[in-house]
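Intended use. Records like the one below are meant for learning the mapping from a protein sequence to its folded structure. Do not use them to infer anything beyond what is encoded.
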Amino acid sequence: VQLQACGGGFVQAGGSLRLSCAASGSIFSIAGMGWYRQFPGQERELVATLDGGGRTKFAHSVKGRFTISRDNASNKVFLHMTSLRPEDTAVYYCNAEGVLRTGWRDPEENYWGQGTLVTVSS
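Structure written out for the chain above:
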């Protein structure tokens, strides 16, 4: 299973970006998909997640500015970021958790995308 993220780039403060991530390979089902980010010298942190039941989690700092959506049929997850701030500058990683590759009896696996850089200028 591979996760391919895209959509990062350079934007001015107050602007918007939309990140996309597609999971490919042998996939039977994915429980949850989401986005995390990592600042230089820091550990990766949760930005937003969306589970199979439609429940979302957001980092406090992005609530009201970021939305997450998912296309289960194509195993894609999207992060729409608005009102971006310089402190949102980070490498953003997509994640797929609870991945079953061939059937319900498979062990659940967790996968990460390669990361996409978001830079917000002041």
